[in-house]
Amino acid sequence: MTTSWADSVDNSVIGSSDANAARPARSTYVPPHLRNKPPSSEPPVASHSSSLPANDRVNYGGPTAGSRGGGSYNRPDHGRQEYGYSGRTGGGWNNRGGGWDRGREREVNPFEDDEATDHAFGEQENTGINFDAYDDIPVDTSGENVPPPVNTFAEIDLGEALNHNIRRCKYVKPTPVQRYAIPISLAGRDLMACAQTGSGKTAAFCFPIISGILKMQHVQRPRIGRTAFPLALILSPTRELSCQIHDEAKKFSYQTGVKVVVAYGGAPINQQMRELERGVDILVATPGRLVDLLERARVSLQMIRYLALDEADRMLDMGFEPQIRKIVEQMDMPLQGLRQTMLFSATFPKEIQRLASDFLSNYVFLAVGRVGSSTDLIAQRVEYVLESDKRSHLMDLLHAQRENGIIGKQGLTLVFVETKKGADALEHWLCLNGFPATSIHGDRTQQERELALRSFKSGNTPILVATDVAARGLDIPRVAHVVNFDLPNDIDDYVHRIGRTGRAGKMGLATAFFNDNNFSLAKPLADLMQEANQEVPAWLTRFAARASYGGGNRNRRSGGSRFGGRDFRRDGQHNKGPEYYGGTGGYGVPASYGGGYGPPGVASAWD
Ligand SMILES: Nc1ncnc2c1ncn2[C@@H]1O[C@H](COP(=O)(O)OP(=O)(O)OP(=O)(O)O)[C@@H](O)[C@H]1O
């Protein structure tokens, strides 16, 4: 029995280095940042003895063995019972209850929404995937004893339940990144994977995690107050992306018994804490909200077996690195080697690769496609447009689209701007001019952000004006056109932005408005377009030449080899000190990277 705060500190589990170790029950969990603190009369963390079932996974064998501490998970689905906000009823919060209908304790069918959407858009199946587009894609792996790739899902032992969900997702065969990354991860190897936008990275890290959890035997988790002990942690830089990964992971783990929970900023934390109390195997989170939950002792990372960072280069750039280090290195997560770590992105600058290697152990580096580049599926146009002409130019584009019938439900347009104010103003102006638009940026409430995204996805407002908060990861079907109304400062941001179209083998169009203010982007943009077999206008080539001579190019990919993603370990310089990163040209002057994400003050837009 815990009698005092000091006792609870003494009794707490301190820095487990053995993720497999079963811990004796304690009544109060003390988060690592509070351990060894002097006793206080007011414990900062409420001590609750709880009879709630812990998340023990004992002998869980998949769909046929479907039982766990809290009851059977293999109940037939009885359809989606809406509670909370559905978007159709208006008001309130989107309920992301981990896919459970609490009223009836039944797992909600996550595929129902897809079926409804397919029906609404007259689509029967995922037939748009053009795998031929990927056939001659270059693939590069490095590291010791790299496990060989597979050609089909059947070749991989993912388990019947997961295979069934893959079929439900209408995934017929693995995409190239999945062909390589899944066997590497299933072999237990750490992985740094670069693959082009829209190429299926989410499944590439979710499948091995879910399959690994299903294979775990006798995992006994501590029963400590209200603390949740997830087995896997997936971190992503934005709230919307975390929600999307959560939705995908729920589909992949439907009726497997694996419980997925999401925690992100801007939404009520109490609701998320309640969900965590009900049990969690895979926690998908944004870093800020996770740190909050860790400090409140509502989550402990001591049982983590799998750590995945999506958009890993973004997660390790200047804005997020301290939070990520805190989560991974200063709380109670097992050390690298004792957990499996997977880092994924479409872009991986070398200085970030070096930082990332701190989190990895004997890892495999995988590059699929011209990494850091855009896919050939996106037709890229760049037009010289003065600041003062941008609105009328956009209007011309939209009118042309309307005439060609590619606006509305079947053809969504995503317009990127530099600032939150700029997003509001452009949205307002578009609406005034008869183009239904909405916007997403860091100054909008989370409810507004989620509502805007839903309205855009459904085609109700087929134009979304966005800041970089929507640049990464979001998988919105039917985005036909991405307009860079304001170009970003960083070429990697450009790659991610235009990657909101041309996904999963489908074609897309990206138009950029360029003017003298974008001088520093001229060379990397021209290089990138050339790499992707796009027509580079003569005036841009001239800008690029001037930029190379005049030192105007401070962008990190100025050296741009044809195969942009290379394992930095191969350079033989990765043991060098900081001077390596201060080199001229090529990758990385520290002052330039991160520049694309704006000053530190705007980082909140990403949380
Ligand atoms: N094997 C597959 N077969 C068919 N479709 C797939 C397959 N794998 C993934 N997809 C679909 O491809 C789309 C893009 O996948 P995903 O969002 O994981 O891309 P990504 O590589 O993470 O992109 P980004 O770099 O923008 O984050 C999704 O709609 C997903 O459902």
UniProtKB/TrEMBL annotation:
All copies of domain DEAD-box RNA helicase Q, residue ranges:
151-179
Which keywords belong to this entry?
ATP-binding, Helicase, Hydrolase, Nucleotide-binding, RNA-binding
The superkingdom listed in its UniProt entry is: Eukaryota
Q: Which PROSITE patterns would you find in this protein's record?
A: HELICASE_ATP_BIND_1, HELICASE_CTER, Q_MOTIF
Q: Which reaction does it catalyse?
A: ATP + H2O = ADP + phosphate + H(+)
- Which is one GO molecular function term here? hydrolase activity
UniProt lists compositionally biased (Basic and acidic residues) regions at 564-577
Recorded hits in Gene3D superfamilies, A to Z, give:
P-loop containing nucleotide triphosphate hydrolases
* Residue ranges of every copy of the Helicase ATP-binding domain listed in the record: 182-366
Q: What is its EC number?
A: 3.6.4.13
Cite the residue spans of the region called Disordered: 1-106, 550-583
Q motif (motif): residue ranges: 151-179
User: Which Pfam families would you find in this protein's record?
Assistant: DEAD (PF00270), Helicase_C (PF00271)
Q: Where is the composition biased (Polar residues)?
A: 1-19
| Listed Gly residues bias regions | 63-72, 87-98
Q: Which InterPro entries match?
A: DEAD/DEAH_box_helicase_dom, Ded1/Dbp1_DEADc, Helicase_ATP-bd, Helicase_C-like, P-loop_NTPase, RNA_helicase_DEAD_Q_motif
Q: Where is the Helicase C-terminal domain?
A: 393-544
Family of the protein in this entry:
Belongs to the DEAD box helicase family. DDX3/DED1 subfamily.
* Entry protein name: RNA helicase
Instruction: Look up and give the organism this protein is from.
Output: Senna tora
Lineage, top ranks: Eukaryota, Viridiplantae, Streptophyta, Embryophyta, Tracheophyta
